[in-house]
Amino acid sequence: MRLTLDPTSGVPPFEQVRDGIRAQVDAGILEAGLRLPPVRVLAAELDLAANTVARAYKELEVLGVVETRGRAGTFVTGRGVQRSLREAASSYVSTARSLGVSDAEVLEAVRRALGT
Fold first, then answer.
1. What values do phi and psi take at 2, rounded to 5?
2. d(CA 6, CA 11)
3. Is the pTM of this model over 0.85?
């Protein structure tokens, strides 16, 4: 895994770590089942505080990109988030169309579900 942080960026380091790992998962560079470096190891490699990397890992876990297996470590889960999102959206559209719902009604249902 290769991560490069931009210290001059206005983006917080934990977000750069999170987004960098997520992008590599989405691109298939980091495959399902791969064990990520321990928090302290990656923090040392990136010259960050361990809590910064821990926060990135925690957010990736919430997104379903990785899972923590206790002392065994943190592992990449199945496919990337973006791919899963596209598949879910495609499934939803197929179901809605099979019900005879118009595209406008489908979009309105999504907006209501999102609360917007």
1. -120, 120
2. 8
3. no
